[in-house]
């Protein structure tokens, strides 16, 4: 049986609601996480990201200064000097299909709707660690592969071209190796 040692993970929770941050922190501590950092808006989240170098980020959509989608775009810029490969879980009350697509297109790794359950959050965290998604670099996108399954017969307008590149970062593999037993 595969076990994830959550005590070895550094997790950043970015949400403007102090009550929601406390709920998420309590759940994370229940899984065994000890290094849980919190930020109350996108700007503070970006600062905490560069300071603490978290292994996973949990971010809300609607926040002051800049929102979770803007924060994700800033982190996903490969030329930013930060770790653009960090898994990002969008935890939000906005579950409309258009918002899920916008989050995915910004580079969010996993999407989770409020109200959350302990099981759903745990599953998203496990997905980030045990099944790291390959990254795609195209002319206008850099982030986790937006497709959950690959179809060799798809010929539509969103078909990948020869110019699209899969990018695998060794940090994703090291994260898995460091916490899985």
From TrEMBL:
<dbReference type="InterPro" id="IPR011006">
    <property type="entry name" value="CheY-like_superfamily"/>
</dbReference>
<keyword id="KW-0597">Phosphoprotein</keyword>
<dbReference type="Pfam" id="PF00072">
    <property type="entry name" value="Response_reg"/>
</dbReference>
<protein>
    <submittedName>
        <fullName>PleD family two-component system response regulator</fullName>
    </submittedName>
</protein>
<dbReference type="InterPro" id="IPR052048">
    <property type="entry name" value="ST_Response_Regulator"/>
</dbReference>
<dbReference type="InterPro" id="IPR001789">
    <property type="entry name" value="Sig_transdc_resp-reg_receiver"/>
</dbReference>
<feature type="domain" description="Response regulatory">
    <location>
        <begin position="10"/>
        <end position="129"/>
    </location>
</feature>
<feature type="modified residue" description="4-aspartylphosphate">
    <location>
        <position position="60"/>
    </location>
</feature>
